[in-house]
Amino acid sequence: MSSTLQNIIELFRKHGDSEYGGESVTQLEHALQTAMLAELAGAASSLIAAALLHDIGHLLHELPDDAPGQGIDDLHEQAGWRFLHRYAPAAVSEPVRLHVAAKRYLCAVDTSYAARLSPPSVLSLQLQGGPMSATEVQDFQQNPWAGDAVRLRKWDDEAKVAGLQTPPLEHFIPALAESLQEKAS
Ligand code: FE
Question: What spacing in Å lies between the alpha carbon of 157 and ligand 1's midpoint?
């Protein structure tokens, strides 16, 4: 197993039990639910890996679990990207970098989406810049990874179900290993 993969598993072991920002699941449960939804949707292994790792930035910083409640945007999507783009192809790191932008995008183009957001997600949206402007929407749509980021975002939003059964972390190691190898080759 590569040292990067070991690092990632270690991060989940060490910090996976932390609360997922005011939701009723832990970081690990949230990651596993998001990855399971990606797998059920038939996503490519790179996007399953992105789903599993989309909030890895939360595991890398030392800010409190309730940073948004204290008015702090933890910029976890950027921290996640900085970590991942060294080891994984853009098909993994870019949807991670864009998953907050995808929320701001969906809020701008789909009012029913905005109405379904959980209270913690509404709170963080304000710190993240609120719904996109018309110009930002146009720019976002030009991004080649926008489609994958939006798919990931919708799984992310659903992956907050307390007590939901998921496969264990080990189940997703082949998808992770495959994605990390792609970068090396
Ligand atoms: Fe998330």
Answer: 7
> What are the structural domains, with CATH classification, of the chain?
3-184 (1.10.3210.10)
In sequence order, the 6+-apart residues with CB closer than 8 A to the CB of 31 are 12, 16, 51, 52, 53, 54, 55, 159
Average pLDDT, the chain: 92
Spacing, Cα 54 to ligand 1 middle (Å): 6
Tell me the per-residue pLDDT of 72-83, one tens digit each, with 9 for 90 and over. Answer: 777 889 999 999
Please tell me the distance between residue 96's alpha carbon and the centre of ligand 1 in angstroms: 10
Say which DSSP state 63 is in: S
The answer to whether the CB of 165 falls within 8 A of the CB of 33 is: no
Query: Which residue ranges in the chain fall short of pLDDT 70?
Result: 62-65, 184-185
Question: Separation of 121 CA from ligand 1 center, angstroms?
Answer: 9
- Which pTM was predicted? 0.93
